[in-house]
Amino acid sequence: MSTTITVEGMSCGHCEQTVEDALREVSGVTDATANREAEQASVEGDADLTALVQAVEDAGYTAHA
Questions:
Q1: CATH (residue range 2-64)
Q2: Is 48 left (phi over 0), alpha (psi -120 to 50) or beta?
């Protein structure tokens, strides 16, 4: 299953990597890709949406579904 969330505050490649790493730590995530220009992250797997948003926010960014 693929899920896309909005992520605000990414300004560089390092930011994208930080978001991707945070999302990959969430149980059920098999892959994650962040795009700062689109202000989105795409997540593969069956992770809970609330957990995905929380992981991004814990990494220092604003996220919502």
A1: 3.30.70.100
A2: beta
Query: pLDDT digit of tens for each residue in the chain (65 aa)?
Result: 999 999 999 999 999 999 999 999 999 999 999 999 999 999 999 999 999 999 999 999 999 98
Q: How far apart are CA 24 and CA 10, in angstroms?
A: 17
pLDDT confidence of residue 65: 87
Nearest to 57 by CA among 8, 1, 2: 8
- 63 contacts 5 by C-beta, under 8 angstroms: yes
Listed by start position, the domains of the chain span 2-64
